Amino acid sequence: MVRDGSYEFFGPGDGPAQERSVRAKFWRTAKKAARQIPFMEDVVAAYYCALDKETPVKVKAILFGALAYFVLPIDAIPDFVAGIGFTDDIAVLTAAITAVSSHITPAHRQAARDAIAEHD
Questions:
Q1: Based on the structure, what is the number of domains in the chain?
Q2: Which of the residues 31, 40, 45, 78 could staple to 112 if both were Cys, CB 3.0 to 4.6 A apart?
């Protein structure tokens, strides 16, 4: 979200809906994927980065796009397919996290560690 409250990414009016969708479904999907995604701490840190008001809008757009792909049930490979269901999610998340890694701070990583410990 831009400081003036508007969303410049997604489409007109899509930013708040996309963020709400990611927030609502993130932990449920993360719990299901935890055993299949070896870098879950990075995914959770990216989630906290996307929610951080100090994160630039373009970075938020990349992260919310990747996180929305992760949490939404419509996928190139359905997540329920044993053994390969999260492979497309892994590719999208890896690309997004790599692209914005300089914006994922030690505070985001600590929040991720704390949240993972709390959700175990």
A1: 1
A2: 45
